[in-house]
Amino acid sequence: MRSITAKLIIYFLVVSLASVSLISILARWNTQQEFSNFVFDRNSSEMVSVLTEYYRAQGTWDGVNPFIFMPNFNPTFNHGNLQPPNFTLADKTGKVIVEGPGYHLGEIVPNDKMVLGIPIRVDNIVVGTLLVGQETFQVNPLEQNFIQRTGNLLLFSALRAAVLALILGGLLAYNITRPIHELIKATQAISQGTLGEQVIVRGRDEMSKLATSFNKMSADLARSTHARRQMTADIAHELRTPLSLIIGQAEAVHDGVLPPSRENFEIIREEADRLEKLVDDLRILSLADAGELSISLQPVSPQKLMQELGGIYQYRLQERHIVLDTEIAPNLPLISIDPGRMTQVLTNIIDNALHYTPENGKITLSARQVDERVELAVQDSGPGVPDGDLERIFDRLYRVDASRQHDESGSGLGLAIAKSIVEMHAGQIRATSPAGAGLTISIQLQHSGQRLAAG
């Protein structure tokens, strides 16, 4: 049996039949017991009433033995055969005056047995005790027929309840398995290459949560596959450009079209360097994706880190006539980072700022404390980034419109690498671009709580 629907229906059927059968058996048994109790209470009450009237009329129990065999007495035994009664009657002293099962005439009934009997009162005075058992009264044919009809009614009701439970169980099984079938159909479509399949989310139960998770996974898979294909195409394009230049330049020198001069070989070297940087960046990203990019954390001064970066770029900035400004808050706490990796992050960001900052522009390096974190930021005075592109500038090989493509010497992976390394530090990186204020990329890192000693 492979269908979960059929399994659920059979499980519902088995549970329903077992439950209904048990309830039917218990109900029939309980009904019979309660009816027997009713018969006992009714007949014993009638006997007590008749015996009470007898004593009230006679003032004594004398002659009670012949009386119980008279037809007008409660028929507790076969009057026609004049068999002994199946009850015992004792007077107020406990002496047996009508013998029954286990007792003889004139015998004294023990007190522990007397308290189990039914007292007979005349004018609120106990004049005798009736000792009867549950088996004293037999159910007559009419009463037996009533019990039988009641039992049959319970049985038929149980069967109808079982059928109704089976129908409801089938509907419930269908409602439970319908989302599963939809998920199976969607997963099969995805396995055949139809990405982005979505299923209908119904309700707020576990199945709806599963459907929601599936929809998110399917959408993420579609986006990831699209991004991977786009990245593959972009990488092929990025690799093709330097390779074409290298091959073209080398063939031109080889064929004598260009002289084997230092300038021509320098072009080949520069393109080879660009190709090597692209491959290195791709390797770093692949290691970060696989969780194999190691970092070694240690407390570092934000002031020292930013000042060293300013010194590294001072000459290049002067060549481009770009002003370097630093805004570093005093007495900042140390940040727990891998100095080499974080330097790589910041150099990638500063390189990106250099690409898009025009001559006579300005780049600002800043560091400040924001709540429980230290924020490092790089701001350029370039053309800025449209709001629609801000969230994508950290994507691999993504470039915004032509206004920020001032320099194409980069690999297009610098900001993607920066984002991966910052996240490995449990930090946050974001980009803002107010109108007319260029692009600001800020990094927030958890500080270690330590500060450099004064002096």
Give a brief rundown of this model.
By secondary structure, the chain is of the alpha+beta class.
Structure description:
The protein contains ten helices and eleven strands. It starts with a helix and ends in a 9-residue tail after the last strand. The chain is of the alpha+beta class. Strand 1 and strand 2 form a beta hairpin. A five-stranded mixed sheet has the order 6-8-9-11-10. The longest helix has 55 residues, at 4-58. It has helices spanning 4-58, 64-68, 111-114, 141-191, 206-254, 262-289, 302-319, 339-356, 387-390, 414-424, and strands spanning 88-91, 96-98, 118-122, 125-131, 298-300, 323-328, 335-337, 362-370, 373-380, 428-432, 440-446. The model is unreliable at 76-83 and 402-408 (pLDDT under 50).
Q: What is Rg?
A: 50 Å
Please identify the oligomeric state: single chain
Work out the strand percent.
5-15%
Strand order of the largest sheet: 6-8-9-11-10
SS elements, strand count: 11
What coarse outline follows from CA principal-axis ratios? elongated
Helix fraction, binned, reads 40-55%
Count of spatially separate domains:
3
SS-derived structural category: alpha+beta
What do the pLDDT scores average to? Answer: 81
Span of the ends, CA to CA: 81 Å
Runs with pLDDT <50, length 5+?
A: 76-83, 402-408
Element pattern in H and E:
HHEEHEEHHHEHEEHEEHHEE
Helix count, per DSSP? 10
- Major β-sheet profile: 5 strands, mixed
